[in-house]
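Reopening this ticket.

The earlier resolution said the output was attached, but the attachment link was broken on my side. Pasting everything inline this time so it's all in one place.
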Amino acid sequence: FMGFPLHSIYHATKFGIEGWSESMSFELGLHQIGIKTIAPGATLTSFLDRSLEKGLHPAYQDLEEKLLGSTDAMMSNSIAPEQVAAVVYQAATDGKDQIRYLVGEDTKAMDANRLKMGREDFRKELKKQFL
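Inline output:
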């Protein structure tokens, strides 16, 4: 539900899944089938070491270092993968007509802040942090 610099493709897929899931909820609902999305915050995995592409074009070096510095701070408050799994199980078994499940206090706080500030002001605030 929000994007960060240097991760446009990653965020595009997440935004796409959100839109697709919301749209499919109407169609699947006709057949009593639910669809859920899970939005975890920083999760203690090997993603940063294993999968995150680093060393982009030199023109982005300062931005990359700033972003990775904030990522280190975020990861210090990361949640265990088991917490995400527990919410996946909850979403699959709760019988609620609810699409999005937020996992982790960091995600819940960012979402609340984004709703309070409004999308554009929140985006501008993120821009100030990184640019």
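Reporter confirms the inline version is readable. Helices lie at 8-29, 47-50, 61-75, 81-93, 105-117, 119-130. The mean pLDDT is 85.
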